[in-house]
Amino acid sequence: MTTTLSEISELFDSAEKKIKLFEHLDDGLLFSAVNQLRYVSFHILRYHEITDNDQKNEELRKAKNHCQRAIYDIMEIGLVHYLEQIRDFEQDYRTVVIADIVPTYLEINAMAKEVTMFLSNNTRKSLAERCDDRGDNYQESIRRFHELHDATEPLNSARSELNKRMKNQKMTLIISIFAAALTLAGVIIALLKS
């Protein structure tokens, strides 16, 4: 299948928009995606210098692949961001029953584990395999990003209700300790009187 300049242009535009989406997270994290787009420019410039059609097609294929890898790298940043949000949520509410407020909580955790495995499987491969697979997996990374983004929305919405529960639990604990202390004091006073 021959790659076209319009196809590369669409992918380049998509990668650029995704970079803008994540610029607020950390400027350093986007370096690899920006670097991939730099390679796209390199191959497009080479494309214009070459006269052989097979070599031209090869340069376009390489440019397309770098666009796809840039998108994967950007989505990876987003996936890691949402995985951290889920871990933070889990840590913040470890003492509270969450599933009755967020009925999909177990599914969200299962999804987070799948995404972690998806990212981990791409990291364990050799550099050459990772580069090729990231280009191949860019659509899968986009799909997983949107799923994880949607899955974290109920967690963010549930925070205020879970905070109320934690406050109630603390108050119940304080009252229980106070009641136990009063009971113990009453027993001690009764023993001293006898």
Describe this structure in words.
With about 190 residues, the protein is mainly alpha-helical. It has one domain (about 5-194). Helix content is about 85%, strand content about 0%. The chain has helices at about 5-20, 30-50, 55-90, 105-125, 125-135, 140-194. The model has no long low-confidence stretch (mean pLDDT about 85).
Keywords:
rod-shaped; mainly alpha; about 190 residues
Strand percentage = under 5%
What sort of overall outline do the alpha carbons produce when their principal axes are compared? rod-shaped
Overall mean pLDDT stands at 83
Radius of gyration, whole Å: 27 Å
Q: What string gives the helices and strands in order?
A: HHHHHH
Structural class: mainly alpha
Strand count: 0
Proportion of helical residues: over 70%
Distance between the termini: 97 Å
Count of discrete domains: 1
Low-confidence residue ranges: none
Largest sheet: none
- Treating each run of at least 4 consecutive H or I residues as one helix, how many helices? 6
